[in-house]
Amino acid sequence: MAATAMSVHQLTSNLYNCRPCGGFRRSEKSRVVRCCESTVEVTEKKKTVVKNGNDSLEICRVLNGMWQTSGGWGRIDREDAVQAMLRYADAGLSTFDMADHYGPAEDLYGIFINKVRRERPPEYLENVRGLTKWVPPPVKMTSSFVRDSINVSLKRMDVPALDMLQFHWGDYANTGYLDALKHLTDLKEEGKIKTVALTNFDTLRLEKILENGIPVVSNQMVDAWGGWSLFQVLLQTLKKVASKHGVSIPTVAVRYVLDQQGVAGSMIGVRLGLSDHIKDANAIFSLELDVEDVSSILEVTQKGKDLMKIIGDCGDEYRRA
Question: CA dihedral in degrees (180, 181, 183, 184; nearest 10)?
């Protein structure tokens, strides 16, 4: 697994926290907005269900983040990348997270899913999940524009319906995000999208979305934390815990994140065809942190910055002028 380097936007290899919005985020008035429930399967530690009303999706708690296919992390060979995706899925790490702007990520998923259809039994396909994001330009969100945009992802990923469409919006002054989400909900009702979710929406907007009857099942977040010196202390603490259990530092970090209330899953960036961390990722599910482990990590993390004061609510770091 890639070395940990964090602005706590990254816990391991640009780790994102993909969490359901059930009580995980508070506004300045400490209001809790509950948009979904997340229940971890007792018999299968690898899986969880993100749910809101009748909408639900079972995912692996460690997700394969495909943003590294967008460039800057080495040349991606499509055949090697698809073979790597198959190895991850064979190992039970079968949830892939991508976006319309992550280079060839959606296309790679389409090639991968067809390979699964040809080379794996039908029941195998039932465990594979493809989560994508839509980041539209600030134009009028008409029904036809939203439909056409989603059809592009459906074609690239070569699926009849998107398992999850995660929606991102950059400018809250433009309330077109409500129109977009209503059209996305219509597409969900038509069967083109199985679940609708958000990316980096703050508490007030999340509340407004829910008040409009839009059933979102999750809100993916990016965190930023700490300074270099404190990060080194955290690394040493994680290293001590890792050595105690005979695992890697990233394995401990992700296990700690998954054990937090309201966290459905944590995403780890995958360098498809270049390197993999399948062994470390699977070790997360068998690792159990004891009271001493948790206390030592908590002692360090509590010294970090108050993100609400420094950054603001979820996604505010993207909206600063």
Answer: 120
Sign of the alpha-carbon torsion through 99, 266, 32, 314: negative
**How many whole angstroms separate alpha carbon 97 and alpha carbon 120?**
21
Between CA 284 and CA 258 the distance in angstroms is: 9
Question: How far lies 171's CA from each of 89, 156, 168, 215, 223, in Å?
Answer: 36, 27, 10, 21, 19
Residue 50 phi, psi dihedral angles, 5° rounding = -95, 135
Rounded CA separation 162/95 (Å): 13
The length of the chain, given as a count of residues: 321
The pair of three-digit structure tokens given for residue 156, joined into one six-digit string: 């690239």
Cβ atoms of 149 and 167 closer than 8 Å? no
pTM: 0.80
Strands 196-199 and 216-221: parallel
Beta strand residue intervals within 77-236, DSSP E: 95-97, 129-134, 164-167, 196-199, 216-221
pLDDT in tens, 181-227: 999 999 999 999 999 999 988 888 988 998 999 989 988 776 556 66
pLDDT digits (tens, 9 = 90+) for 148-168: 999 999 999 999 999 999 999
Kindly list the distances between the CA atom of residue 105 and the CA atoms of 31, 73, 252, 279, in Å, as whole numbers in the listed order. 37, 14, 28, 23
Tens of pLDDT, residues 125-150? 999 999 999 999 999 999 999 999 99
